[in-house]
Amino acid sequence: MTHDLLTALRPLLTAEAGAEAHASGTEPGDLEQAVWLRLLERLDTDGPPLDPPGWLRRAVRSEARRTRRTHRIERPYDTEPVDDTDPDPEHLALAAASRRALRDAVRRLPGRCPSLMEALLSPKDLTYREIAGELGISQGSLGPERSRCLGCLRRLLTPEVAAREVRG
């Protein structure tokens, strides 16, 4: 019964929502979805309407009016809201400690890894060509070397990160 009602009302709802959507400043699909929700809530509480097509037309117009009112009242920001995520002293201290732990771990890496990682972490934002020239290695071997060094760094940092987690 419910499935038949929904199937029968679908073309009417699509047509009505398409006709009302432009004037309400919304998408037809959004309007349809709101009316389907309203219908399903009604079916759950009061059962099917006595005049389903009439009810559907009234519901579409009602939802369109509600959407117009909402658009009239709600205004987008002219500018972005103030960013209140300024880091407090605690976050600044934790970030500095994390950077120090990373730099310490980089210095403990084997072979060319410390110089490679320092070049990658450089604020100069060096290209692979510049890093390869600075380290005296081919640009083609830089990617595999970087992957190997990051794997070593990950293994060095894992115990430190795990040790800092709060347990309990």
Walkthrough of the structure:
This protein has 7 helices and no strands. The relative contact order is 0.07. Helix 1 packs parallel to helix 3 (52-73), helix 2 packs across helix 3 and helix 5 (113-120) packs across helix 7. The radius of gyration is 31 Å and the shape is elongated. It is 74% helix and 0% strand. The chain has helices at 2-24, 28-45, 52-73, 89-107, 113-120, 128-135, 139-164. The chain is mainly α and 168 residues long.
Can you give keywords for this protein?
168 residues; mainly alpha; elongated
Produce the secondary structure layout:
Blueprint: H1 2-24, H2 28-45, H3 52-73, H4 89-107, H5 113-120, H6 128-135, H7 139-164
Helix pairs in contact: 1-2, 1-3, 2-3, 5-7
What percent of the residues sit in helical stretches (DSSP H or I)? over 70%
How would you sum up the major sheet? none
Low-confidence runs: none
Task: Give the N-to-C terminal Cα separation.
Answer: 54 Å
- The number of E-state strands comes to 0
What structural class results from the helix and strand content?
mainly alpha
Order of helices and strands: HHHHHHH
Rg measurement, Å: 31 Å
Shape: elongated
